[in-house]
Amino acid sequence: MPAFARLRRRRASPLPYLLILPTFLFVALFTIWPMLLASYQSLFLQRLNMARYRTPTFTGLQNYVELLNDDRFHQVMLNTLIFVAGTVPVSIVLAFLFAMLVNQALRGIGIARLFFFYPTILPLVSAATIWMFFFTPDYGIFNTALRMLGYSGPQNWTSNPSLALLSVMIVAVWKNAGYYMIFYLAGLQGLPQDVYEAAALDGASGWQMLWRITFPLLRRTTLFITTIAFISAFQTVDHIFVLTQGGPAGASTVLLYYLWEQRFEFLNVGIASALTVVLIAVLLIFTLTNFMLSERKEDAHAG
Phi then psi for 69, rounded to 5 degrees? Predict the structure, then answer.
């Protein structure tokens, strides 16, 4: 009985709750509260640049209906999907290839790792400014290379509706691939070498070891990288300011940049809040779906 009483007192200790209290307060203040506030404001019509609508007026789901019927919003969502589909897989594949390349015991390999990781440590605005030189119509590196290949006529990369979004995607891939490489490199260096030695003794080829051993063992790492890459793609805004300002004619406007326009240029609080809720919902659905599918695959492999 005394032992049971001591166990109950130990379980009732407030120390674990005190330890997580700072994190809980931080999350509540900077994540939960803004989400709830945005959800509440999305139910009101409020435009700070118009005296008539400066006072919030309850309209229910009217802001969401307006978005669904807005062709500009449809184009923004299409641009966002193209951006995500074009940057996330490419960044992850390049990150894995870079990690495989630098995961070698070679002289000077540290310089190669720094070379691939260097774009990550640059501020995004600085990186976009550097790429502005690459995209310059007359003497930019891209157009110079095209002329060397026999293509005449410079391309205006950031002002061409067909190339503006591609330009933003190129910068995003260049910036993020080295960052994701670090996670893959850490995963590769933590893999058990005895498994590869046994596979080599059994006559497995390099491709078979990659497909049958490396990929399955890095499944958790890939899940983590995919999640942060997807979230990062939806948070793209900085280099759009420098490269295209969302143009031309909205050709490179993605969801977060459109949200910024509505809130800080058009001062439309209601629509901006509704866009915030849409952004949070998309990220939440993807993250939960990604984790559930991954757990199901883990259970299937374990079974």
Answer: -100, 5
Place of tokens 């390349």: 101
**Phi, psi angle pair for 45, to nearest 5°:** -95, 120
Helix, strand, or coil (residue 44): strand
d(CA 195, CA 214) in angstroms, rounded, equals 10
Block residue for tokens 């919003």 = 73
* % of the chain at pLDDT higher than 70: 92
- Angle at Cα 119 formed by Cα 115 and Cα 123, nearest 5°? 145
Question: How many CB atoms are closer than 10 A to CB 96?
Answer: 25
What does the pLDDT read at residue 273?
94
Alpha helix (H) ranges present in the chain? 2-11, 15-27, 33-41, 62-68, 71-102, 109-121, 124-134, 141-148, 164-189, 193-201, 206-209, 215-217, 219-234, 238-243, 255-260, 269-302
What residue segments make up the domains of the chain, in order of their start? 67-302
- Provide the residue count of the chain: 303
CB within 8 Å of 232: residues ≥ 6 apart: 176
pLDDT digits (tens, 9 = 90+) for 237-272: 888 888 888 888 889 999 999 999 999 989 999 999
The answer to whether 286 and 198 have CB atoms below 8 angstroms apart is no
pTM of the full structure: 0.86
Tell me: pLDDT of 78 over 90. Answer: yes
Give which of 105, 103, 123 is closest to 113, Cα–Cα: 103
Q: Which CATH architecture has domain 67-302?
A: Orthogonal Bundle (1.10)
Which residues are CB-contacts of 200 (< 8 A; sequence separation ≥ 6)?
Answer: 209
